[in-house]
Hints:
Layout: E1 10-13, E2 16-19, H1 23-44, H2 53-71, H3 84-100, H4 114-139, H5 144-167
Antiparallel strand pairs: 1-2
Amino acid sequence: xxxxxxxxxxxxxxxxxxxxxxxxxxxxxxxxxxxxxxxxxxxxxxxxxxxxxxxxxxxxxxxxxxxxxxxxxxxxxxxxxxxxxxxxxxxxxxxxxxxxxxxxxxxxxxxxxxxxxxxxxxxxxxxxxxxxxxxxxxxxxxxxxxxxxxxxxxxxxxxxxxxxxxxxxxxxxxxxxxxxxxxxxxxxx
Length: 189
């Protein structure tokens, strides 16, 4: 379980080693954190009430592991694991949930049910992951599809959080100082 190789602040990546505070390590480490948050969201979700979202979260966990693997590679000849089809699938699910949920005009507060709140936590961790990946992409070669996937994933979590509340007949709470920010046809975060 322990190698002691990290005792000096270094860690292995695919193709070499890096300092533990390297932005590449931060990016795939936060991807791992997002995976754990996704597991927590799945654990509080009632599979009987949400037979679609539970399996989607499991698929996302596998894909987050793939994202972490892609982000941890510094080899020139890396065969990437995350491809366009993963992002396309998320877009399809977002479109379905956006169509099902009532239209938004204002920002909403995270919350409602416990499962919705957990999905909002996933959304915010996905946004942090995306910021770290963006920083990494400015200085090193990465799989650009991972960046697109994580961006879309935060939108997915937003849509899924809203659907959980909607199906349980819990209204989203609008941020009371929000101006109208969403126009008809633009129901995304």
